[in-house]
Amino acid sequence: MNAEQFTKLQALLQRVQQKSPFYQNKFKAAGFDIADIQTPADIAQLPFTTKEELREAYPLNIQAAPDEEIVRIHSSSGTTGKPIIIPYTAQDVAVWAEMMHRCMSVAGLTAKDRVQITPGYGLWTAGIGFQAGVERLGAMAIPMGPGNTEKQLQMMVDLQSTAICATSSYALLLAEEIHKRGLKEHIKLKKAILGSERWGDKMRIRIREELGVELYDIYGLTEIYGPGISISCSACNGLHYWDDYLLFEVIDPQTGKPVADGEFGELVITTLTKEGAPLLRYRTRDITRMLTGECSCGLPHPRHDLILGRTDDMVKVKGVNIYPGQVEDVLKHIEGISSEYQIVIDREEGKDAMLLRFEQQEGFDATNLELRVKKYFKTKVGLTINAQALSIGQLPRSEKKTARVIDNRY
């Protein structure tokens, strides 16, 4: 934490102490006094904020500004429980637009670009966030929203879009459709800004080659503004995050203690300037690590690594903890395997059984690939599994996020 961040943190503590009933009650329950934060190291005394607490605060108990200052709300999907409602002040909206603007600039976009925006609008943060950044940049926003692939391709050709914002799953679906229809020579895409889910190296290669674009990872979450809080750069060595607005920490998810720079752990974020719903030490559940040293791209903002997975993405099979990122790491080393995979877990005769389904490239023997996957997985992860090779296109495609794990045990 630098001096500027610490000053903003102290101002944030004063603000939530005065204006946030949520944190007033939380501090009281934890026996915490903001006067105890005298040095940057004292942040360890601040209690964490969790997703469960935000759900319990539904609908607007997290709000820390009067209604007349709230200009918008956004919400998480609520697919695993109550949705989380996040209120925004005009300044919050402006800060988010500025972060998105920076992301567009880092990706090399200019006012001459035409940017096709495919993520959803409405309560979800993605679509409107991308649009705000594009418009602040002065580029042409093409606010398509999700789905309707036929229309997406028509607009991509007719309007000659030069950049696309999407989930990696939908970018792959579009790339496959462009290839099937022979449209590659008719599109002008140069850049793709992709986020909302983890995606592996093989998927990157396929999207990059089939769309003919430069790829940029963008990161964010509804609770912390939305997408745009960090982005990868031309050096492709981690994601730069906006440390003048946000404080990042990485902790051991089991102990809550900080890990050393370069070690993987759970990302924790504090919103240094947010007004509508400020968050202190919010546990994102995303697994990453801090990267040290200056980036060759010249940006002064610090970096974190790609998101390895989520603490709640982990599944335990036969006592072994497995993340989707580990599966991708296995598959990327085996020639002949494409980007798409699916993990299916069942109970057979009272024991866990895992099937890894994957798509194979043409010209490779399925039986040989299955044997290699089983052997390599046993060596790398320490677990005996079954493997099934499928033709490209047999696994489901998604216009949003791809479900990688199907757990039938519960």
TrEMBL record:
Start and end residues of each AMP-dependent synthetase/ligase domain: 59-270
Domain AMP-dependent ligase C-terminal: 319-409
Xref: CDD domains: PaaK (cd05913)
Pfam families in the cross-refs: AMP-binding, AMP-binding_C_2
Keyword line: Ligase
Ranges that cross the membrane: none
EC number from the UniProt entry: 6.2.1.30
Domain of life: Bacteria
Enzyme class: ligase
GO MF, one example: phenylacetate-CoA ligase activity
PANTHER family: BLR5969 PROTEIN (PTHR43845)
Name under which the protein is recorded: Phenylacetate-coenzyme A ligase
Organism: Sporomusa silvacetica DSM 10669
